[in-house]
Prior knowledge:
By secondary structure, chain A is an all-alpha fold.
Amino acid sequence: MATKEKIKEVLVNLLKVKAEELKDGVALQESIGVDSTEMVESVIALEKAFGVKLSPKEITKSSSIDDIEKVLQSKFAK
Amino acid sequence: MAKIAITGIGIVSPSGIGKRQFWANIKAGRSFIKEITRFDASKYPSRIAGQIDELNKYSNISERLLKKIDAFSHMALIASELALKDGGIDIKDEDPNLVGIFLGNAIGGWLYAETELRDLYLEGREGVSPYMASAWFPAAPQGQVSIYYGIKGFSKTVVADRAGSLMALGYAAKVLNKNKLNMILGGGMEAPVTPYALLCCNTYGALSKNNTHPQEAYRPFDKKRDGCVIGEGAGIVVMEGIERANKRGAKPLAYISGYSATCDGVDRINCSGDGKELARAIKMALSEAKANVDEIDYISLDGLATDLWDDSEVKAIKTVFAGKLKDIPISCPKSMFGNLLGASGAVDMITTILAMEHALVPVTLNLDEPNIEGLNYVTREVKEHKINKALVISRGRGGINSVLVVEKGEN
């Protein structure tokens, strides 16, 4: 599965939002009104799903799906 | 204290969700005490309770929110929605800075906490949901209701064991008297039917062990009583000043006209056996309501169904009402659905308001042979009786006494 699709799947299952609500280029805060606790949970879930270590500063409420993909790609490259 | 109008009722209880269903079951004198089926309670000394099944069926709460909150917040959200609807309030039309929330709770949200603590020990800190911190604590429902409706006014959660919600209503009435808020959602919620919470309630020692006959187990003031039975639910009402209620054309269902609270201060767990401090609280509440003892038409009793608590409660009302007591019907309707602990007082007040509306006094179940004779106990069948003014008593561990005077509304 492509990284972007997998990110969406993780967030949809975790936050119980609809896949179509998650827009690739829009900040999570804008698209699904994510709150800070949801962000903590999302970072942990993404770490588990992709087997990488993430800091809460790398993925924030202002991150879009595209931004998250970039952060993950950079981790894979290391 | 100026009287405060109650203009909307929201009830979530084992006897029903919504005031119609609740009253129909209360009026019929049905017991909703059953064996606990939510988890394996077979090794608990007391394994019966008043439970609410299918809470989701009555809820508009999204799955996204439900995963962040405990059952007691869920119950408070449903009760708030019902109260606002009953009161004809559209929260969007209110100034959010002038709306408050005053709720009572005793033990917090353990259904959520227990699962997360299990995960903490099994999986380490990353196994714990970040919502744990905001889901379990007693003020969580206040927070969730405020977020859901965008309420921003002065609000409080009162933790005072079983007396919490009646105290919250009393505080709310006093705050409205200061004219700094337009409206308050007042009441309480409790969800103690969980493995750990039930264990704690069992350790307290005031639960009935009559597991073989659940419907006969909770028998306040009866000679064969052996403790109360826990129940879960929420009771929340819309409270506002009379002038505002009239202005918006709302018919008050009832008024809160007096409130008082005292402490026995004799023991960490038990109340005092003489009922003196409870009697003082009753007198102060009556005085605040400018009501004489002969004006009270009904007393809703706390009724923990243990010798010490029941008998001291009877002593207190005897001290205050003396010879008049034989004319005042008294009952403990929670014997039908269980003791909702921190939510019990608010639910008792709601039952009292519905009793006033229908001019019927609900029964105390299983009160076959009173331990103290000579009182006007209502048992077996509802009693037709006009109630204009009533007293609601709610008490908590360590000897907390709270008393509310409620008066009939316009309908």
